[in-house]
Design brief:
Helices cover 32% and strands 16% of the residues. By secondary structure, the protein is of the alpha/beta class. The radius of gyration is 17 Å and the shape is globular. The chain binds 2-amino-2-deoxy-6-O-phosphono-alpha-D-glucopyranose.
């Protein structure tokens, strides 16, 4: 795992944006996996700026989102469809037919999940998967106890996650109980996993993910088994890492050709 600690979330998002932008420049038909939540908002803002000011071209890019709430129509203001169109898709030149988000209204859920996995494979696999992390260590919506080899499927949210996500719905009771999410096995097949975490409330999940045992009880910890996982953190999210100084030293002394 590569741990990059930045003074604040803005600078951390700049690093993440450079990594995504480099992938898109080097591979115009790149496949990008996308996350929702508060964490990637600054990253998306910077990518939009790069598109407008530097001509970063998304016309050949294919996108796959990690997850979606079950039972919400796409147009629901709290659906991840609405989020992605508001914060990214309507602001860059990505082609509509290359945008993929799990279908929250799928009738045959297993078939819809199989189709999603097949679409990822047909696109050539994900080059960079952007990830956030839940306070309980979930990635995507893979809650604690998720199989480390799981594929895209229906999951039941924990109360902790429904509480964390209540803001967008007005109350915890209004948060859907079920979701469709890429599995941990699906995420692990991405060529690069780029996890962002900001703020004190993520410090414990980050420490368990990086320095704890690999366990289904902390789904993010599966990234320890990934050959290319980069975690970009602000100081607060890194505050419970025992080896924080070492990670910072490594990043500051990277040879020029390895820098982002
Ligand atoms: C949500 C999403 C995750 C996200 C996480 C953290 O439930 N399904 O993809 O990474 O929770 O959200 P936030 O960035 O708002 O803290």
């Amino acid at each position: 795992m590569e741990i990059i600690i930045q003074p604040d979330s803005q600078q951390a998002s700049q690093v993440a944006a450079r990594i995504v932008a480099r992938t898109v420049r080097e591979k115009p038909h790149a496949v990008i996996g996308l996350a929702t939540g508060n964490t990637p908002l600054q990253l998306y803002r910077i990518l939009v700026e790069m598109h407008r000011e530097q001509g970063l071209d998304f016309s050949g890019v294919t996108c796959f989102n990690l997850d979606e709430y079950l039972g919400l129509p796409q147009a629901h203001p709290s659906s991840y469809h609405s989020y992605m169109w508001a914060h990214l898709f309507s602001l860059i030149n990505v082609a509509k037919e290359r945008i993929h988000i799990p279908d929250g209204l799928a009738q045959d859920i297993p078939a819809s999940c199989r189709k999603y996995e097949q679409a990822i494979r047909s696109a050539g696999g994900i080059d960079v998967q952007v990830l956030g992390i839940g306070t309980n260590g979930h990635i995507g919506f893979n809650e604690p106890s998720s199989s480390l080899q799981s594929r895209t499927r229906i999951k039941t949210l924990t109360d902790e996650t429904r509480r964390s996500n209540a803001a967008g719905f007005g109350s915890e009771a209004a948060v859907p109980t079920h979701v469709i999410t890429m599995g941990l096995g699906t995420i692990m097949e991405s060529r690069l996993c780029l996890l962002l975490a900001f703020g004190k409330k993520k410090a414990r999940a980050v420490a368990q993910t990086v320095e704890g045992p690999v366990t289904a009880m902390v789904p993010g910890s599966v990234l320890q088994m990934h050959p290319r996982a980069i975690l970009v953190l602000d100081r607060e999210a890194a505050s419970e890492l025992k080896m924080a100084e070492y990670y910072s030293w490594v990043y500051e002394h990277k040879p020029g050709w390895q820098k982002y």
